[in-house]
Design brief:
Elements (H helix, E strand, L loop, with lengths): L2 H7 L2 H6 L7 E3 H8 L3 H9 L7 E2 L6 E4 L3 H11 L5 H9 L2 H33 L3 H5 L4 E6 L2 E8 L6 H16 L10 E4 L11 E7 L2 H11 L5 E6 L2 E9 L7 H15 L8 E5 L11 E9 L1
Length: 302
């Protein structure tokens, strides 16, 4: 006989006999019916710490609930229908009133942002799969430029795609602050992608800030660089093939088309890629509007 059948076979008087000032106890079957949930779901919520029974029989291990717990049980079930992680559910139901609403609103805003990005990615992939790639690549004008040798202070990290934007901003901020002790910033900051960054691959990625004083940079890295994998090196002179992007085009996955457009341009002219791709940030991101140029997507070529 299952736990539900065994417990429900007991008389209501037995359950009521175990009641205290909190009101009568309900068997798991009776409470499941009241909460419009299954006993299986209630056991899961108990294991996860989301809804603990009011009483557990020490002899048989049977679970008993209060009628007043039904609202919490329904709330947990509804939040799970939003695909909310269990840890976030626990945070929401532990909060009071307005704070709980704020937590839910914050979670859902993140969901909508993710769905919008996935929708754009799906549109991009539809264009690739249907053979319209040339139309997408035609939006990007590719040019070349000769870059001189420069000394750079750098920070390297393995990072998944969802953490990349935050890390780029934080690492460049740290490096630009360090550059003030190394003769100042002498060129546009840039980020090198030494390997693919996606949901399956984490780089590594290297943030770079050109500085004036190599010796001061090396001294700073020796004194402070271990915490952030910071070092100073000489970036050799390079010929770069690049395309310039407006702020609106930097968003993922639109930026993927820019990288592929430059790769197509390089291959079409018989050139070879001579190093990792990069994003070069030459404008004030916060002050820029959606159509203002802010970034170059570039590949060294030979």
């Amino acid at each position: 006989m299952t736990e539900d059948a065994q417990v429900d076979a007991r008389s209501e008087s037995q359950a009521e006999a175990q009641a205290d000032d909190g009101g009568p106890l309900l068997t798991i079957g009776a409470f499941a019916a009241r909460a419009r949930l299954s006993a299986k779901a209630l056991r899961l919520y108990d294991r996860l710490g989301l809804l603990t029974p009011a009483h557990v029989d020490e002899a048989g291990g049977y679970r008993y609930y209060r009628a007043g717990q039904a609202e919490r049980a329904r709330l947990v079930a509804l939040l799970r229908q939003l695909d909310m992680p269990l840890a976030r559910i626990a945070e929401v139901i532990a909060a009071d009133g307005e704070r709980a609403g704020e937590l839910l609103a914050s979670y859902w805003a993140g969901v909508e942002t993710r769905i919008a990005a996935q929708r754009t990615l799906a549109e991009y992939l539809c264009g690739r799969l249907s053979g319209r790639s040339s139309e997408m690549y035609g939006k990007f004008e590719v040019e070349t430029v000769e870059l001189p040798q420069q000394v750079v202070i750098t920070e390297t990290r393995h990072t998944p795609a969802d953490e990349l934007p935050a890390w780029i901003g934080a690492s460049l901020g740290r490096l630009e602050a360090a550059a003030r002790e190394c003769g100042g910033v002498t060129g546009a900051p840039f980020v090198l992608f030494h390997a693919e960054v996606s949901t399956e691959s984490d780089g590594p990625v290297e943030s770079c800030v050109p500085v004036a004083d190599e010796a001061a940079g090396r001294a700073w890295a020796e004194a402070h660089g271990r915490a952030w994998q910071t070092r100073v090196r000489v970036e050799p002179a390079r010929r770069m093939a690049y395309t310039r992007l407006a702020k609106a085009q930097v968003a993922y996955p639109q930026i993927l088309a820019a990288f592929e457009a430059v790769e197509q341009w390089i291959a079409g002219r018989g050139l070879e890629q001579a190093g990792p791709s990069r994003e070069v940030y030459f404008a004030d991101w916060a002050a820029a509007g959606p159509q203002d140029p802010v970034c170059d997507v570039a590949f060294p070529v030979r």
